[in-house]
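Recall the central idea of this unit: under ordinary conditions, the amino acid sequence of a chain determines the structure it adopts. In this exercise we apply that idea directly, starting from the sequence alone.
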Amino acid sequence: MQIQYNADDGLAASGHRVASNRWRWPGLLCVLLAFLPAASASAHESPNENPGPEVVPSWVFPLDSTPPSGSAPFNSLLPLHIPGSRRSFTHTEVNDPFYAPDWHPASHSVMPGIVASGRPPEVFACGYCHLPGGQGRPENASLAGLPAAYILSQLADYRSGARSSAANGPYAPADFMIHTVRNATVEELSTAAAYFSAQSLRPRTVIVETERVPRSHVVGLVYTAVRGGGSEPLGQRLLEFAPDADRHENRDDGMRYVSYVPRGSVGRGRHLAKAGLDSPANACVSCHGPQLRGVGLIPPIAGRSPTYILRQLIAFKTGARSGATGEPMRNVARNLNLSDMIDAAAYAASLPP
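Accordingly, the structure predicted from this sequence is:
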């Protein structure tokens, strides 16, 4: 029995099933990862490990640096398609970090150059990783609707070294972000921040409370079910799956991800968000607002990737996020254990953005 929560309509139905498509490894990412030390995480490792202040579970950062067997051959001319879009792009285009494949141009305003194409050879297109409308993916931030000043403060922390990944080793999205920020101009960053702040976030994930999950492997930087692979215990983990590996690899900004969390996570997270761990002063709503949609320059967290939220809580706890504006969150996170973090992330992600 599984309980499913939709970020747009609250508690839905039970018995959610995830289908998987065939693997296809993005050629460019494989090349980029070749320049980084190997860092591979499996969804099957230590399902009940509970990190102390300096220990980060490897499953939080899924990364496979070698192409899986049976990958579809790279074809630079074959047009790719996704459901719900009349547009088409090639393998080359969806793997070009200086190009943001725009499947749904009517869903956002006109992208400025820094978002659409970056500035080769050093500044990647913001819309390549964060997607044209800022919807993001589990491995990076959903920027749509974040306050521009907040985005700029985080970019400044990346540039100064006050913000990094909490992964135990290289993590490509954070590494590429740091590289881009340190090579971008203030004007480019300000333009990107203003653009993404003006966009609207759409629901990106479905929360499923369960005791068992499909056996998985990693496609790019996200979990996907092994077809016919059966299931395994979830344990004390939060695993966000792409229900269709091809749509994920093709950078489909309309696909909903599926996030598996332990039974009772959303209810426990709701209590944590409203009452705090040990005091209402530490409750999520005291800073992020009653619906977790942000207050002033404090960012909204409702409806955003629970995997991403979990990584940020761990980053605050470990000190990977050490910027001045993060001090209140570090005070809260230092008292949270892994279960608390999963619960809080699950509840926030279950809310409408």
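The radius of gyration is 19 Å.
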